[in-house]
Amino acid sequence: MPSEYNKEDNIADATAAKAAYKPTHPGLFEVVHAEGSFNSQLVACKDFKKGEIICDIQGTTPGPKKYTTVQVSKDLHIELNSDLVYLNHSCDPTVSFDTDKMQVIAHVDIKKGGPLTFFYPSSEWEMDQPFPCWCGAEKCCKSIQGAKFLPTEVMDRYFVCSHIRDLLKERDAQQA
Fold first, then answer.
1. 86 vs 33: CA distance, rounded Å
2. Distance CA 167, CA 105 (A)
3. CA 22 to CA 35: how far, in whole Å?
4. From CA 6, how far away is CA 17, in angstroms rounded?
5. 37, containing H or E segment
6. What's the burial of 33, exposed, middle or buried (CB within 10 Å: 0-12/13-18/19+)?
7. Which pLDDT tens digit goes with each residue over 49-72?
8. How far apart are CA 175 and CA 104, in angstroms?
9. CA-to-CA distance for 164 and 169, rounded, in angstroms?
């Protein structure tokens, strides 16, 4: 995996982006580049069964909190340095991002070509760049700001990383 991975956020020519693209996990998943800002997505290159480990998370580097990092403890963020940076958010996610085991796990059965998405607040306490959610899920949260801003009852619907569970317990104890 590359030691430094640059995510293209605004693609003017999807055909050129696809031609230049070199997947970091060939055979598992790939980026589908789409023109515009933040329109690309990660899709499965094969079928995955619910509970199957899609990949180990390797080659990461610590970094300051920003929209391309993932929170892995109460105070540490990492750069993924791979195509995993294109995992989009969904309130009805297809994968779990387990920062304790450093694995991406199929949350549901995923068909080849299906999108790989995860619930961002499952690992993020407070998002660097909050955004309105348009995922269309039946129980969409509407605004993705991080776990800090969601009731524990909502978070209980999802796989949630242990550092977020700890922060939720601390928050709830302070509010009691």
1. 10
2. 23
3. 18
4. 12
5. strand 36-37
6. buried
7. 999 999 999 999 999 999 889 999
8. 33
9. 9
